[in-house]
Specification:
The chain has helices at about 1-10, 15-30, 40-45, 50-60, 65-80, 95-100, 105-110, 135-145, 145-160, 205-240, 240-265, 290-295, 325-340, 375-390, 405-425; strands at about 165-170, 175-180, 190-195, 200-205, 275, 280-285, 305-310, 350, 355-360, 395-400, 425-429. By secondary structure, it is of the alpha/beta class.
């Protein structure tokens, strides 16, 4: 859940700085003073929590499996403990409210389901003994048939005085009471003849017939009963789908916040500052992915600054291949994106103004299947940027005008740069 939430924050960053500041406030509260906040304990509690969002959706679709409901109960029990770990702050008030789902859901699931039920309801063995009297009776018939027959045999011997009376079963004739030919005069009137043998007669009684009907269909009826009970359980859970959805969102946000709190402390990221005037000011910025790869090789990433503002909205970067041009450009975009989504950034300081979009024209590719050459695809993307960029947009143009002659390429690059600087007035690298 946290991974999906984090992905949504990255792909859908808010333009409203208020939401970004709320996320930063939550992350800072979880970090606490000198990193001694509750983020670590919170992460430990969230480790065993299942994917409540998927379970809740499957409940709404009536496709949830028994073991998923058992996992949901564990999540509900864990959710009750989480509010005690959160600091007292307005940011966490909606989360705390969502972390109090109806207690009857966990109670119902605990009373109904086994700790380790069958994988599928069609396999049976899902509900606890004592949850449903009819199911218990059917299970008892399956599990205690031999005991019932022995008890009935002793009872009938005593009632009739026939010492060699037998209560037996075979697949052809079912259950029967067998009496030898020499004891037929002692057979009670309520015995109904079922089969005649050479040396014995076989009978059935109303009591044994009733048991036979139950025993022979007990397994099928028990399975049908469990399926019916499961449908009733899903009916009972439908009214709680909204509360479970709110719980899932709260758990997902806590997961994302605590993860960002840990990453910021571990990697030395800093909270960005938001201003109302247009600017992107970064001090000692770092590309987080490249820095991590270099660290694996024992190499330090060289931090660098970026300053785009009202008096310097465009930077033209030149240098040899593998000189770090693309790394620098993407680093600025990543830091801007992280700041807009409300996350600490890999920089010593970051001041950012209003940003409405990030446009990129990077790399060489073609779409020949749709009659788009490398040059045509590049021009199409460049045209989309020129039509959409605003003074609050960040534009990355990593080489433009390739795939054509030198002077045509220079003319295109110059015209595009002039338009972005003079007309669009965007932040451009």
């Amino acid at each position: 859940m946290g991974a999906r939430t984090l992905r949504r924050w990255i792909t859908e960053p808010p333009r409203d700085h208020d939401l970004a500041q709320q996320r930063l406030a939550a992350i800072a509260a979880l970090q606490g003073d000198q990193g001694l906040g509750p983020w670590s304990t919170l992460r430990q509690c969230l480790k065993g929590v299942p994917d409540v969002q998927r379970i809740q959706a499957r409940i709404a679709l009536r496709q949830v499996k028994p073991r998923e409901l058992v996992a949901l109960r564990q999540a509900l029990l864990a959710a009750v403990r989480l509010p005690q770990l959160l600091p007292v702050a307005p940011t966490f008030e909606p989360v705390m409210a969502a972390l109090n789902p109806p207690p009857e859901v966990a109670t119902l699931l605990g009373q109904a389901l086994l700790d380790e039920p069958a994988v599928m309801i069609r396999d049976g063995g899902v509900f606890r003994d004592g949850f449903d009297a009819e199911l218990d009776e059917l299970r008892g018939i399956q599990n205690h048939a031999d005991g019932f027959l022995l008890k009935l045999e002793a009872q009938e011997r005593e009632a009739t005085g026939i010492a060699n009376l037998k209560v037996q079963y075979n697949r052809v004739h079912g259950f029967f009471i067998e009496v030898s030919q020499g004891q037929l005069d002692r057979v009670p009137d309520h015995y109904k003849r079922r089969q005649t043998l050479e040396n014995a007669e076989r009978f059935i009684t109303p009591e044994l017939k009733t048991f036979e009907d139950k025993a022979l269909s007990a397994q099928e009826r028990a399975l049908a009963r469990e399926k019916w009970l499961y449908e009733q359980l899903l009916n009972d859970l439908q009214v709680h789908v909204t509360a479970l959805s709110q719980l899932a969102l709260a758990l997902a946000e806590l997961d994302a916040w605590s993860t960002l709190a840990e990453r910021a402390l571990t990697l030395g990221w800093r909270a960005p500052e938001y201003v109302n005037h247009p600017c992107i000011h970064i001090e000692e910025g770092r590309h987080p992915v490249v820095q991590a790869r270099l660290a694996e090789q024992g190499v330090n990433f060289i931090a660098n600054d970026s300053d785009l503002g009202p008096h310097g909205r465009m930077q033209i970067i030149t240098g040899p291949n593998m000189g770090g041009k693309s790394t620098y450009m993407r680093q600025v975009a990543l830091i801007t994106l992280l700041a807009c989504m409300g996350c600490p950034v890999p920089a010593q300081r970051c001041v950012i103004g209003p940003i409405d979009a990030i446009y990129t024209r990077i790399g060489a590719a073609d779409d020949l299947a749709n009659a788009q050459s490398t040059f045509m695809l590049e021009m199409t993307e460049a045209a989309q940027i020129l039509h959409g960029a605003t003074p609050n947009s960040l534009v990355l143009m990593d080489e433009i005008g390739r795939g054509t002659s030198t002077y045509d390429g220079l003319a295109l690059a110059g015209a595009i740069a002039s338009h972005l600087h003079d007309k669009s007035q965007s932040f451009v690298l």
